[in-house]
Amino acid sequence: MESSSASNEEVTAVPASWNFEPNETLLGLMALSVRGVLARIKAEMVAGGGGGRPVIPMGHGDPSAFPCFRTAPEAVDAVAGALQSGEYNSYSTCVGLEPARRSVARYLSRDLPYELSPDDVYLTNGGAQAIEIVCSALARPGANILLPRPGYKLYEARAVFSGMEARYFDLVPGEGWEVDTDSVRALADKNTVAVVIINPGNPCGNVYSYEHLAKVAETARKLGVFVVADEAYAHLTFGERRFVPMGVFGAVAPVITLGSISKRWLVPGWRLGWIATSDPSGVFQRTKVASSIKTYHYICSDPTTFVQGAVPNLLENTSEEFFRRNIRTLKESADMCWEKLKGVNGIACPSRPMGSMFVMVKLDLSCLQGIEDDMDFCCRLAKEESVVVLPGRVVGCEDWLRITFAIDPSSLEDGLDRLRSFCSRHSKPAAQGSAASVV
Ligand SMILES: Cc1ncc(COP(=O)(O)O)c(C=O)c1O
Protein backbone atom coordinates (compact mmCIF):
# COMPACT_ATOMS: atom_id res chain seq x y z
CA MET A 1 0.00 0.00 0.00
CA GLU A 2 2.66 2.40 1.16
CA SER A 3 4.91 1.81 -1.80
CA SER A 4 2.04 2.22 -4.31
CA SER A 5 0.98 5.65 -2.91
CA ALA A 6 4.64 6.78 -3.03
CA SER A 7 4.87 5.87 -6.72
CA ASN A 8 1.57 7.71 -7.43
CA GLU A 9 3.03 10.82 -5.86
CA GLU A 10 6.13 10.47 -8.01
CA VAL A 11 4.00 10.30 -11.13
CA THR A 12 1.72 13.23 -10.28
CA ALA A 13 4.29 15.60 -8.72
CA VAL A 14 5.00 18.65 -10.89
CA PRO A 15 8.75 18.98 -11.49
CA ALA A 16 10.42 22.19 -10.37
CA SER A 17 11.46 22.78 -13.95
CA TRP A 18 11.19 21.13 -17.35
CA ASN A 19 14.27 20.06 -19.24
CA PHE A 20 13.47 22.28 -22.21
CA GLU A 21 15.54 25.29 -23.24
CA PRO A 22 14.26 27.30 -26.21
CA ASN A 23 16.52 27.32 -29.23
CA GLU A 24 17.16 31.06 -29.58
CA THR A 25 18.64 30.57 -33.06
CA LEU A 26 15.34 29.09 -34.18
CA LEU A 27 13.24 31.81 -32.52
CA GLY A 28 15.41 34.50 -34.12
CA LEU A 29 14.63 33.15 -37.58
CA MET A 30 11.04 34.50 -37.38
CA ALA A 31 12.41 37.93 -38.38
CA LEU A 32 13.51 36.39 -41.70
CA SER A 33 10.06 35.12 -42.62
CA VAL A 34 8.00 37.14 -45.12
CA ARG A 35 4.78 35.63 -43.83
CA GLY A 36 5.81 36.23 -40.21
CA VAL A 37 6.46 39.94 -40.77
CA LEU A 38 3.33 40.43 -42.89
CA ALA A 39 1.28 38.81 -40.13
CA ARG A 40 2.75 41.29 -37.66
CA ILE A 41 1.87 44.27 -39.88
CA LYS A 42 -1.67 42.96 -40.41
CA ALA A 43 -2.12 42.43 -36.68
CA GLU A 44 -1.21 46.09 -36.05
CA MET A 45 -3.63 47.14 -38.77
CA VAL A 46 -6.48 45.20 -37.16
CA ALA A 47 -5.60 46.71 -33.77
CA GLY A 48 -5.60 50.18 -35.33
CA GLY A 49 -8.98 49.72 -37.02
CA GLY A 50 -7.59 49.89 -40.59
CA GLY A 51 -9.83 52.83 -41.56
CA GLY A 52 -12.71 50.51 -42.51
CA ARG A 53 -11.64 50.25 -46.15
CA PRO A 54 -10.91 46.98 -47.94
CA VAL A 55 -7.35 45.85 -47.35
CA ILE A 56 -5.06 45.99 -50.40
CA PRO A 57 -2.46 43.25 -50.07
CA MET A 58 0.70 44.34 -51.88
CA GLY A 59 3.17 42.46 -49.71
CA HIS A 60 2.53 38.83 -50.61
CA GLY A 61 3.90 36.45 -53.24
CA ASP A 62 0.64 34.61 -53.77
CA PRO A 63 -1.84 36.16 -56.19
CA SER A 64 -3.96 33.01 -56.52
CA ALA A 65 -6.90 34.46 -54.57
CA PHE A 66 -7.56 37.07 -57.29
CA PRO A 67 -9.94 35.93 -60.05
CA CYS A 68 -7.55 37.30 -62.72
CA PHE A 69 -4.84 34.96 -61.38
CA ARG A 70 -6.75 31.67 -61.28
CA THR A 71 -4.88 28.58 -62.35
CA ALA A 72 -5.39 26.84 -65.70
CA PRO A 73 -8.38 24.49 -66.05
CA GLU A 74 -5.96 21.88 -67.45
CA ALA A 75 -4.06 21.97 -64.14
CA VAL A 76 -7.26 21.44 -62.15
CA ASP A 77 -8.27 18.58 -64.48
CA ALA A 78 -4.84 17.00 -64.05
CA VAL A 79 -5.18 16.94 -60.26
CA ALA A 80 -8.84 15.86 -60.32
CA GLY A 81 -7.98 13.07 -62.77
CA ALA A 82 -5.09 11.86 -60.61
CA LEU A 83 -7.30 11.85 -57.53
CA GLN A 84 -10.21 10.09 -59.24
CA SER A 85 -7.97 7.42 -60.75
CA GLY A 86 -7.40 5.94 -57.27
CA GLU A 87 -3.79 5.25 -58.30
CA TYR A 88 -2.16 7.84 -56.06
CA ASN A 89 -3.30 7.02 -52.55
CA SER A 90 -0.01 5.40 -51.49
CA TYR A 91 3.25 6.88 -50.26
CA SER A 92 5.38 7.86 -53.23
CA THR A 93 9.00 6.91 -53.68
CA CYS A 94 11.26 9.21 -51.63
CA VAL A 95 12.70 11.21 -54.52
CA GLY A 96 9.30 11.42 -56.28
CA LEU A 97 7.32 9.29 -58.73
CA GLU A 98 9.32 8.40 -61.83
CA PRO A 99 6.76 9.63 -64.42
CA ALA A 100 6.59 13.01 -62.66
CA ARG A 101 10.40 13.31 -62.51
CA ARG A 102 10.61 12.29 -66.18
CA SER A 103 8.12 14.99 -67.18
CA VAL A 104 9.95 17.67 -65.14
CA ALA A 105 13.22 16.57 -66.81
CA ARG A 106 11.57 16.88 -70.24
CA TYR A 107 10.01 20.25 -69.36
CA LEU A 108 13.33 21.73 -68.19
CA SER A 109 15.31 20.20 -71.06
CA ARG A 110 13.29 22.20 -73.62
CA ASP A 111 15.44 25.22 -72.72
CA LEU A 112 18.77 23.44 -72.19
CA PRO A 113 21.50 22.42 -74.65
CA TYR A 114 21.33 18.83 -73.33
CA GLU A 115 18.73 16.40 -71.97
CA LEU A 116 18.16 15.95 -68.25
CA SER A 117 17.23 12.46 -67.10
CA PRO A 118 14.62 11.63 -64.43
CA ASP A 119 17.58 10.82 -62.15
CA ASP A 120 18.64 14.48 -62.32
CA VAL A 121 15.29 15.52 -60.79
CA TYR A 122 14.04 15.26 -57.18
CA LEU A 123 10.50 16.32 -56.27
CA THR A 124 9.91 18.50 -53.23
CA ASN A 125 7.17 20.15 -51.18
CA GLY A 126 7.36 23.35 -53.21
CA GLY A 127 10.44 25.49 -53.76
CA ALA A 128 10.69 26.08 -50.02
CA GLN A 129 11.52 22.45 -49.29
CA ALA A 130 13.93 22.46 -52.22
CA ILE A 131 15.81 25.27 -50.41
CA GLU A 132 15.78 23.29 -47.17
CA ILE A 133 17.11 20.16 -48.86
CA VAL A 134 19.83 21.91 -50.84
CA CYS A 135 21.07 23.88 -47.81
CA SER A 136 21.08 20.70 -45.71
CA ALA A 137 22.88 18.70 -48.38
CA LEU A 138 25.55 21.35 -48.96
CA ALA A 139 26.20 22.14 -45.29
CA ARG A 140 29.18 20.89 -43.35
CA PRO A 141 30.80 22.42 -40.26
CA GLY A 142 32.58 25.63 -41.21
CA ALA A 143 30.99 25.89 -44.67
CA ASN A 144 29.53 29.13 -46.00
CA ILE A 145 27.12 29.98 -48.81
CA LEU A 146 26.94 33.25 -50.76
CA LEU A 147 23.49 34.84 -50.98
CA PRO A 148 22.19 37.86 -52.91
CA ARG A 149 21.20 41.06 -51.12
CA PRO A 150 18.40 41.95 -51.52
CA GLY A 151 17.21 38.37 -51.62
CA TYR A 152 14.94 35.68 -50.31
CA LYS A 153 15.79 35.18 -46.65
CA LEU A 154 14.59 31.61 -46.43
CA TYR A 155 18.09 30.75 -47.72
CA GLU A 156 19.68 32.38 -44.70
CA ALA A 157 17.21 30.71 -42.34
CA ARG A 158 17.85 27.26 -43.79
CA ALA A 159 21.60 27.79 -44.09
CA VAL A 160 21.92 28.95 -40.48
CA PHE A 161 19.69 26.18 -39.24
CA SER A 162 21.92 23.67 -41.08
CA GLY A 163 24.98 25.14 -39.36
CA MET A 164 26.24 26.98 -42.44
CA GLU A 165 27.32 30.64 -42.52
CA ALA A 166 25.35 32.96 -44.82
CA ARG A 167 27.43 35.68 -46.53
CA TYR A 168 25.84 38.40 -48.62
CA PHE A 169 26.97 39.83 -51.94
CA ASP A 170 25.28 42.89 -53.41
CA LEU A 171 22.93 43.22 -56.34
CA VAL A 172 23.40 46.56 -58.09
CA PRO A 173 20.14 48.57 -58.22
CA GLY A 174 21.10 50.94 -61.04
CA GLU A 175 22.25 48.04 -63.25
CA GLY A 176 19.11 45.93 -63.35
CA TRP A 177 20.03 44.38 -59.99
CA GLU A 178 22.90 42.47 -61.56
CA VAL A 179 25.22 40.43 -59.35
CA ASP A 180 28.28 42.37 -58.21
CA THR A 181 30.78 39.65 -59.14
CA ASP A 182 33.63 41.55 -57.45
CA SER A 183 31.73 41.31 -54.18
CA VAL A 184 31.22 37.56 -54.80
CA ARG A 185 34.96 37.11 -55.32
CA ALA A 186 35.77 39.14 -52.22
CA LEU A 187 33.52 36.99 -50.02
CA ALA A 188 34.51 33.54 -51.21
CA ASP A 189 37.11 31.38 -49.53
CA LYS A 190 37.97 27.68 -49.40
CA ASN A 191 34.89 26.98 -47.27
CA THR A 192 32.44 28.53 -49.73
CA VAL A 193 30.26 25.80 -51.19
CA ALA A 194 27.86 27.67 -53.48
CA VAL A 195 26.60 30.98 -54.77
CA VAL A 196 22.82 31.49 -55.01
CA ILE A 197 21.15 33.53 -57.72
CA ILE A 198 17.43 34.19 -58.06
CA ASN A 199 16.28 34.75 -61.62
CA PRO A 200 13.71 36.14 -62.36
CA GLY A 201 14.23 37.94 -59.09
CA ASN A 202 12.42 38.08 -55.82
CA PRO A 203 12.38 40.81 -54.55
CA CYS A 204 13.85 42.91 -57.39
CA GLY A 205 11.88 41.92 -60.51
CA ASN A 206 15.20 41.48 -62.35
CA VAL A 207 15.67 39.23 -65.39
CA TYR A 208 19.31 38.44 -66.15
CA SER A 209 20.75 38.36 -69.66
CA TYR A 210 22.55 35.35 -71.12
CA GLU A 211 25.82 37.29 -70.87
CA HIS A 212 25.34 38.13 -67.20
CA LEU A 213 24.51 34.52 -66.30
CA ALA A 214 27.61 33.40 -68.21
CA LYS A 215 29.68 35.83 -66.13
CA VAL A 216 28.23 34.45 -62.88
CA ALA A 217 28.95 30.87 -64.02
CA GLU A 218 32.52 31.81 -64.95
CA THR A 219 33.02 33.49 -61.56
CA ALA A 220 31.73 30.36 -59.79
CA ARG A 221 34.00 28.14 -61.86
CA LYS A 222 37.08 30.19 -60.98
CA LEU A 223 36.17 30.04 -57.29
CA GLY A 224 35.41 26.31 -57.39
CA VAL A 225 31.86 26.81 -56.05
CA PHE A 226 28.54 25.43 -57.28
CA VAL A 227 25.70 27.62 -58.51
CA VAL A 228 22.29 27.30 -56.88
CA ALA A 229 19.80 28.82 -59.34
CA ASP A 230 16.44 29.68 -57.82
CA GLU A 231 14.03 29.69 -60.74
CA ALA A 232 10.76 29.76 -58.78
CA TYR A 233 9.63 32.57 -61.14
CA ALA A 234 10.91 30.92 -64.34
CA HIS A 235 9.19 32.24 -67.50
CA LEU A 236 7.41 35.06 -65.64
CA THR A 237 9.10 37.76 -67.75
CA PHE A 238 7.44 40.68 -69.50
CA GLY A 239 10.24 43.00 -70.58
CA GLU A 240 12.39 42.59 -73.65
CA ARG A 241 14.49 39.83 -72.00
CA ARG A 242 13.45 36.21 -72.18
CA PHE A 243 14.12 33.86 -69.30
CA VAL A 244 17.41 31.95 -69.69
CA PRO A 245 17.82 29.01 -67.29
CA MET A 246 21.13 28.87 -65.44
CA GLY A 247 21.38 25.18 -66.34
CA VAL A 248 22.52 26.35 -69.80
CA PHE A 249 25.89 26.97 -68.10
CA GLY A 250 26.05 23.62 -66.29
CA ALA A 251 29.22 22.68 -68.18
CA VAL A 252 30.93 25.88 -66.97
CA ALA A 253 30.01 25.35 -63.30
CA PRO A 254 27.68 22.66 -61.91
CA VAL A 255 24.20 24.06 -61.34
CA ILE A 256 21.50 23.01 -58.86
CA THR A 257 18.22 24.45 -60.13
CA LEU A 258 15.26 24.94 -57.80
CA GLY A 259 11.80 25.32 -59.28
CA SER A 260 8.14 24.81 -58.58
CA ILE A 261 4.68 25.04 -60.08
CA SER A 262 3.67 27.61 -57.42
CA LYS A 263 4.18 30.81 -59.40
CA ARG A 264 3.88 29.94 -63.09
CA TRP A 265 0.74 27.86 -62.49
CA LEU A 266 -0.48 30.11 -59.65
CA VAL A 267 -0.93 27.22 -57.22
CA PRO A 268 1.43 27.75 -54.28
CA GLY A 269 -0.91 25.73 -52.07
CA TRP A 270 -0.38 22.58 -54.13
CA ARG A 271 3.17 22.31 -52.75
CA LEU A 272 5.01 20.84 -55.71
CA GLY A 273 8.55 21.80 -56.52
CA TRP A 274 11.79 20.24 -57.66
CA ILE A 275 15.54 20.18 -57.50
CA ALA A 276 17.25 19.55 -60.84
CA THR A 277 20.98 19.06 -61.32
CA SER A 278 22.58 20.39 -64.50
CA ASP A 279 26.03 18.94 -64.48
CA PRO A 280 27.15 17.34 -67.73
CA SER A 281 30.66 16.79 -66.30
CA GLY A 282 29.39 14.54 -63.47
CA VAL A 283 30.84 16.65 -60.64
CA PHE A 284 27.80 16.11 -58.42
CA GLN A 285 28.21 12.32 -58.64
CA ARG A 286 31.93 12.43 -57.88
CA THR A 287 31.60 14.85 -54.96
CA LYS A 288 28.55 13.03 -53.50
CA VAL A 289 26.28 16.08 -53.80
CA ALA A 290 23.77 13.90 -55.66
CA SER A 291 23.80 11.20 -52.96
CA SER A 292 23.54 13.86 -50.21
CA ILE A 293 20.41 15.32 -51.85
CA LYS A 294 18.99 11.84 -52.33
CA THR A 295 19.71 10.78 -48.75
CA TYR A 296 18.02 13.91 -47.40
CA HIS A 297 14.87 12.87 -49.28
CA TYR A 298 14.83 9.66 -47.27
CA ILE A 299 14.54 11.58 -44.01
CA CYS A 300 11.87 14.12 -44.94
CA SER A 301 8.28 14.10 -46.18
CA ASP A 302 7.28 13.86 -49.86
CA PRO A 303 4.95 16.08 -51.84
CA THR A 304 1.36 14.78 -51.89
CA THR A 305 1.25 11.72 -54.13
CA PHE A 306 -1.82 12.71 -56.16
CA VAL A 307 -0.24 16.07 -57.01
CA GLN A 308 2.83 14.18 -58.19
CA GLY A 309 0.48 11.99 -60.22
CA ALA A 310 -0.92 15.12 -61.90
CA VAL A 311 2.48 16.52 -62.90
CA PRO A 312 2.86 14.93 -66.38
CA ASN A 313 -0.57 16.15 -67.54
CA LEU A 314 -0.14 19.54 -65.89
CA LEU A 315 3.25 20.20 -67.50
CA GLU A 316 2.33 18.84 -70.90
CA ASN A 317 -1.26 20.01 -71.36
CA THR A 318 -1.44 23.56 -70.00
CA SER A 319 -2.31 25.87 -72.87
CA GLU A 320 0.13 28.54 -74.03
CA GLU A 321 -2.82 30.95 -73.92
CA PHE A 322 -2.97 30.57 -70.10
CA PHE A 323 0.68 31.58 -69.79
CA ARG A 324 0.32 34.44 -72.30
CA ARG A 325 -2.70 35.82 -70.45
CA ASN A 326 -0.87 35.84 -67.11
CA ILE A 327 2.14 37.55 -68.62
CA ARG A 328 -0.14 40.20 -70.17
CA THR A 329 -1.77 40.84 -66.79
CA LEU A 330 1.59 40.98 -64.99
CA LYS A 331 3.01 43.34 -67.60
CA GLU A 332 0.04 45.72 -67.34
CA SER A 333 0.33 45.69 -63.55
CA ALA A 334 4.11 46.20 -63.59
CA ASP A 335 3.75 49.10 -66.04
CA MET A 336 1.04 50.73 -63.94
CA CYS A 337 3.17 50.31 -60.83
CA TRP A 338 6.25 51.82 -62.50
CA GLU A 339 4.30 54.83 -63.85
CA LYS A 340 2.36 55.53 -60.66
CA LEU A 341 5.40 55.23 -58.37
CA LYS A 342 7.26 57.88 -60.36
CA GLY A 343 5.64 60.86 -58.73
CA VAL A 344 5.36 59.59 -55.15
CA ASN A 345 7.16 61.76 -52.57
CA GLY A 346 9.85 59.97 -50.62
CA ILE A 347 10.01 56.94 -52.89
CA ALA A 348 12.38 56.09 -55.75
CA CYS A 349 12.32 53.10 -58.02
CA PRO A 350 15.79 52.46 -59.47
CA SER A 351 14.97 49.66 -61.87
CA ARG A 352 11.87 48.88 -63.90
CA PRO A 353 10.64 45.35 -63.08
CA MET A 354 11.04 42.92 -65.97
CA GLY A 355 9.91 39.70 -64.29
CA SER A 356 8.47 37.91 -61.25
CA MET A 357 5.81 39.84 -59.27
CA PHE A 358 7.78 42.46 -57.36
CA VAL A 359 9.52 45.77 -57.49
CA MET A 360 11.95 47.23 -54.95
CA VAL A 361 11.63 50.91 -54.08
CA LYS A 362 13.88 53.04 -51.91
CA LEU A 363 12.53 55.25 -49.15
CA ASP A 364 14.02 58.67 -48.68
CA LEU A 365 13.18 59.22 -45.03
CA SER A 366 14.62 62.75 -45.14
CA CYS A 367 11.51 63.72 -47.19
CA LEU A 368 9.04 62.11 -44.79
CA GLN A 369 8.18 63.38 -41.35
CA GLY A 370 7.84 61.17 -38.33
CA ILE A 371 8.60 57.90 -40.13
CA GLU A 372 11.40 56.05 -38.39
CA ASP A 373 12.26 53.31 -40.85
CA ASP A 374 10.81 50.83 -43.36
CA MET A 375 9.03 48.80 -40.66
CA ASP A 376 7.43 51.91 -39.21
CA PHE A 377 6.44 53.04 -42.72
CA CYS A 378 4.72 49.71 -43.43
CA CYS A 379 2.91 49.58 -40.08
CA ARG A 380 1.57 53.13 -40.47
CA LEU A 381 0.63 52.61 -44.10
CA ALA A 382 -1.33 49.53 -43.08
CA LYS A 383 -3.02 51.32 -40.17
CA GLU A 384 -3.88 54.51 -42.02
CA GLU A 385 -4.55 53.27 -45.55
CA SER A 386 -5.19 49.52 -45.21
CA VAL A 387 -2.40 48.86 -47.70
CA VAL A 388 0.11 46.12 -46.91
CA VAL A 389 3.62 46.22 -48.38
CA LEU A 390 6.75 44.38 -47.25
CA PRO A 391 9.49 46.21 -45.32
CA GLY A 392 12.78 45.92 -47.21
CA ARG A 393 14.59 44.61 -44.12
CA VAL A 394 12.84 41.26 -44.64
CA VAL A 395 14.72 40.93 -47.93
CA GLY A 396 17.96 42.37 -46.58
CA CYS A 397 17.59 46.12 -47.28
CA GLU A 398 16.49 48.50 -44.56
CA ASP A 399 14.59 51.58 -45.69
CA TRP A 400 13.45 49.94 -48.87
CA LEU A 401 10.06 48.40 -49.64
CA ARG A 402 9.10 45.41 -51.71
CA ILE A 403 5.85 46.04 -53.56
CA THR A 404 3.88 43.20 -55.14
CA PHE A 405 2.04 44.21 -58.29
CA ALA A 406 0.46 40.78 -58.84
CA ILE A 407 -3.01 41.75 -57.68
CA ASP A 408 -6.07 42.62 -59.68
CA PRO A 409 -5.50 45.88 -61.61
CA SER A 410 -8.26 47.95 -59.98
CA SER A 411 -7.03 47.06 -56.46
CA LEU A 412 -3.48 47.83 -57.53
CA GLU A 413 -4.51 51.25 -58.81
CA ASP A 414 -6.36 51.94 -55.57
CA GLY A 415 -3.41 50.70 -53.48
CA LEU A 416 -0.90 52.88 -55.34
CA ASP A 417 -3.19 55.92 -54.98
CA ARG A 418 -3.45 55.29 -51.24
CA LEU A 419 0.35 54.93 -51.05
CA ARG A 420 0.72 58.27 -52.81
CA SER A 421 -1.69 60.05 -50.46
CA PHE A 422 0.05 58.48 -47.44
CA CYS A 423 3.45 59.75 -48.62
CA SER A 424 2.09 63.18 -49.45
CA ARG A 425 0.37 63.45 -46.05
CA HIS A 426 3.66 62.53 -44.34
CA SER A 427 5.91 64.66 -46.55
CA LYS A 428 7.99 67.44 -45.06
CA PRO A 429 6.71 70.73 -46.45
CA ALA A 430 9.86 71.35 -48.53
CA ALA A 431 9.70 67.86 -50.03
CA GLN A 432 6.14 68.19 -51.43
CA GLY A 433 6.16 67.44 -55.14
CA SER A 434 9.64 65.90 -55.30
CA ALA A 435 10.22 62.18 -55.66
CA ALA A 436 13.29 60.67 -53.96
CA SER A 437 16.35 60.70 -56.15
CA VAL A 438 17.03 57.46 -57.93
CA VAL A 439 19.76 55.34 -56.35
C1 LIG B 1 12.70 33.18 -54.65
C2 LIG B 1 11.79 32.13 -54.10
N1 LIG B 1 12.25 30.88 -54.01
C3 LIG B 1 11.48 29.90 -53.50
C4 LIG B 1 10.20 30.16 -53.06
C5 LIG B 1 9.39 29.06 -52.47
O1 LIG B 1 8.60 28.51 -53.46
P1 LIG B 1 7.28 27.68 -53.09
O2 LIG B 1 6.18 28.65 -52.91
O3 LIG B 1 7.08 26.80 -54.28
O4 LIG B 1 7.57 26.90 -51.87
C6 LIG B 1 9.68 31.45 -53.16
C7 LIG B 1 8.31 31.74 -52.68
O5 LIG B 1 7.85 32.83 -52.61
C8 LIG B 1 10.50 32.47 -53.68
O6 LIG B 1 10.06 33.72 -53.78
Question: Summary?
Answer:
The chain is of the alpha/beta class. The protein has helices spanning 2-12, 24-28, 34-48, 73-85, 98-109, 126-138, 154-161, 181-187, 210-223, 283-286, 289-298, 305-317, 320-341, 374-385, 409-425, and strands at 56-58, 121-124, 144-149, 165-172, 178-179, 192-198, 226-230, 255-260, 273-278, 347-348, 358-363, 387-391, 400-404.
List the helices and strands and how they pair.
Layout: H1 2-12, H2 24-28, H3 34-48, E1 56-58, H4 73-85, H5 98-109, E2 121-124, H6 126-138, E3 144-149, H7 154-161, E4 165-172, E5 178-179, H8 181-187, E6 192-198, H9 210-223, E7 226-230, E8 255-260, E9 273-278, H10 283-286, H11 289-298, H12 305-317, H13 320-341, E10 347-348, E11 358-363, H14 374-385, E12 387-391, E13 400-404, H15 409-425
Parallel strand pairs: 1-12, 3-4, 3-6, 6-7, 7-8
Antiparallel strand pairs: 2-9, 4-5, 8-9, 10-11, 11-13, 12-13
The structure holds pyridoxal-5'-phosphate.
